[in-house]
Amino acid sequence: MTRQIRSLPALIALGASAAAITACASAAPTAVPAAYLETSPLDLNAIQVEKRTEFLEVAIDAQSSELSSSDRARIREFLAGYVKRGHGPLVLSMPQASANPQLAVAAVAEARAIAWDLGVEYEEMTGRAHGAGSPVSEPMILAYQSYEAIAPYCPPKSTVDFSNIDSNNQLPTLGCSVRTNLAAMIIDPGDLLGKRALDPSDLSRREVILEKFRAGESTASERLSQESGAVSSAVQ
């Protein structure tokens, strides 16, 4: 058997050539930033969420024995907002300095009753007092915490160079409109923070769908005759 032994200078030259090729490959120019491989367009245009304090002041009339109908309507509308997007406790604060203490107590009690009627549990309400030592009559105050969705800033399309084809990267405006629309449509921005637990799944319904799938049956809900999407003959 014949063995071929390369000379040392030849091996050194071969190694140097391989190193040069590797160096050229690693130093090759590229227009793809690291963020392009690590994030998505939606991550680059994230929706910001800010906490807000919603409050309602209801004046206590010194000459009245009960709340006016307009005040009751304002309280109900405010509490409906708490039911829809409120977080944390509902604060009902009674004024300690009032020209009509009896009405102040009755107003807080009535606001509590309206909240209960809208589905707010008593455990979700908390009582407060304010205005001690105030020289003027203080209003009743209702308050709760909410969240506001702040849409990302979308640069005008006129500022984007659509003719730039140096790379296949996404444009800075990609996904921005989607996030802006979502920020405007979402009911409770607090959901973006994951603060609300998901409702439990319907296991029995899932088993029914799974059995239909295994049997080769349609898993769609059956529609009644009055639910048909066909156009009525009266308009044909």
From TrEMBL:
Pfam families, per this entry? Pilus_CpaD
Q: Where is the signal peptide?
A: 1-27
Region described as Disordered: 217-236
How is this protein named in the record? Pilus assembly protein CpaD
Record's keyword annotation contains Coiled coil = no
What does the UniProt keyword field contain? Answer: Signal
**Where along the chain is composition biased (Polar residues)?**
218-236
